[in-house]
């Protein structure tokens, strides 16, 4: 097991990157040119030789005045650039002088750097710190020429790099840098003066007056009055975060303006945090140094600073990742590498709360979509064409940077699936070498696999492992999913998403015990190293409990109010939702890609004020992937194209409202009135049905889904069954169809794991079983109907002994070993008289895909291989050939004393490649099953009984 690596006594490599060394020597004369390199990989269709675009790779050419070099191929552009620079360094014979710095050499370098920073030469350079020196020379009185040690520590990267050689702890304790600077300044007593009272440095020999006059003369003409919006973060939890105004007028040192706002004398009493948010940003936290402090050994400075304050600033500490005491000012102001002018931006309350959101995985995703109220981090990674917003890998990288962790390490492995299952998408158990064992216990040797690959019978599939390290290179988290994918990028994104979902869960409850952390992580195939993990996320205990999840429907539940359902008094779940416009007949279903226009408003009913919070002209999301607010999705699934809806949502916390509000003052005023509600207006613009439905609709009339239902209805009539259970009933399409035909059924039951799908099924069935006069004569045999929520891989005695059971297009959404488990459970424990199972015929996919029209939103990589045998739905874990399905069903029937016959719909039985949907009908040979005694695992979601629902 990998346990992580501890840092050595100092950095193992130069603080200068190869590119930095080249820049020092050649500056603008060094020209980098990066080109994309295409790699051709095998496609997913056995026996076909069709090129498939592989992952993007990059190669860099570095042109120098005397020669050029070409890098190796890398996945990231910056790695290719660094490689080219490293080759150039080797060719030039340059030996970085910091390669093997001793501690004493580092002290000498640090003292030399301080001497240079206070030199006349540095004064005119373009550097983030040079502006501070120029401003210091314009200060009046006893402060003239003094530059604070905190500013030097915060704004000079070279100083920080050298300090790491002396004490590696400065990597995570920036205050130690100040102590080392002071110690180095004492070595320059003949040139520098250190003021312990001011925590500042000054040249012993003042700069010549003509130099200062020249600087003032060359200063760009800035506005005489500069007011900068900032945010004040109080240390007291009883006080609120509020806006603040900084006066950085011409001639004033902006750090002095911040000092005034904090209530201290001057800039020397202001400490400065790392950058907050993006690395290129100048947004930092500014807070007070203690009134008096005695500088001791470097290892003691931080403790002395901390103990000098009474109140710990939890919010500021969480934002910066370093301990902050007392009130703090969050501002975006400072000098940059780009100009000698002061750079500044207004920082509003909206920006502050968005910075907070950007430290949470779901918040990062919401911000990437510009939809904090509407979007959610999806629970599954679907095809690239259906995913919207930042990809999981990018979100995870951003998260690690925000929390001062090392970049996540993605390790993907490729292997060949078993050659006897060409339609297999993912394998649960595959050895990296030697024998491979499939679910049936059969072994396939590596030689057989290699032969199958050579003959075009297999293609590579990928798995990905994600590791997250601390800055000290301690391993804190490992995710190694068992699922495998045809595309390397899919494996990477799915693994990253598992990590993100668990991190979101953890940040929602940071006070969970180690046992809770371990068990919750295990469910997502995440392994945490508690001691190291808790250490890295200790500041997260101060995370504000704002809950960045979307709001719910106000005053009524749209899709999950099941308490009334259980009492047979189900009310229309969308009664409070006004849907206007004519019904077009096209409604979203699970897997559909929909596009809506929406606007969310803050409304005061008394005054009739309506302030827009968030909106989008075109907002796309996939139904069923969890990519949007549950209430918004639930409303949209009740609509058809061109229809509009208006509904009231539960008002989220004030902080979330401020994160989306463009006018904080107005919104704060409305919120203070205490009569606010949040309303949403949405219009459904487009619906793109899932790829599987598009393919089936293009070739079959009536659609294949309807043909499957009619096939099941025919067997129900012939069997004279009185009871039916539908495993994986989804939104109740089969159960709804049963109500439109005369059958012998008296009791119908549906089971599914999706609460959202069951809510839709409950609404439809309740509506049709209550007051549907036209269908009364057809449905009068139905005496009871029940919907259960639970996994169909779990036994529940209430489903034992039904006359007929159905499972239409469900098993392919499981892993293959789970499909085998499901078959064993149904036939050995539930023991229906008849079981009907349908699943896609993998061999029919080429015909379906050739007949499927092209759509703009499809993955370009997928469109380039139209002939390849893709699965019909991105959520399918496998698809079986006729032989594989026959073998599975025959062995299942033999084990449990059932007969089985095979048929299907779509296509012809004696014509290649068979039926589009293959069906197995199992019939029990013996009599009634033994009484089952199982725990009742399923939850009753909805129940209807004719005896308690009399009709007029």
UniProtKB/TrEMBL annotation:
GO terms for molecular function: metal ion binding; O-methyltransferase activity; peptidyl-prolyl cis-trans isomerase activity; RNA binding; RNA methyltransferase activity; small RNA 2'-O-methyltransferase activity. Residues 226-358 form the Small RNA 2'-O-methyltransferase Hen1 La-motif C-terminal domain. This is Small RNA 2'-O-methyltransferase. InterPro entries: DSRM_2 (IPR056755), Hen1 (IPR026610), HEN1_dsRBD2 (IPR040870), Hen1_Lam_C (IPR040813), Methyltransf_12 (IPR013217), PPIase_dom_sf (IPR046357), SAM-dependent_MTases_sf (IPR029063). GO terms for biological process: piRNA processing; RNA methylation; siRNA processing. It comes from the Eukaryota. The keyword Magnesium applies. Pfam families: dsRBD2, DSRM_2, Hen1_Lam_C, Hen1_LCD, Methyltransf_12. Residues 23-93 form the dsRNA binding domain. It comes from Nicotiana tabacum (Common tobacco). Its cofactor is Mg(2+). PANTHER family: HEN1, SMALL RNA 2'-O-METHYLTRANSFERASE. The keyword Signal does not apply. It catalyses: small RNA 3'-end nucleotide + S-adenosyl-L-methionine = small RNA 3'-end 2'-O-methylnucleotide + S-adenosyl-L-homocysteine + H(+). GO terms for cellular component: cytoplasm; nucleus. Belongs to the methyltransferase superfamily. HEN1 family. It is an enzyme of class 2 (transferase). The lineage of its organism: Eukaryota, Viridiplantae, Streptophyta, Embryophyta, Tracheophyta. Keywords: Magnesium, Metal-binding, Methyltransferase, RNA-binding, RNA-mediated gene silencing, S-adenosyl-L-methionine, Transferase. Residues 361-506 form the HEN1 double-stranded RNA binding domain. Its EC number is 2.1.1.386.
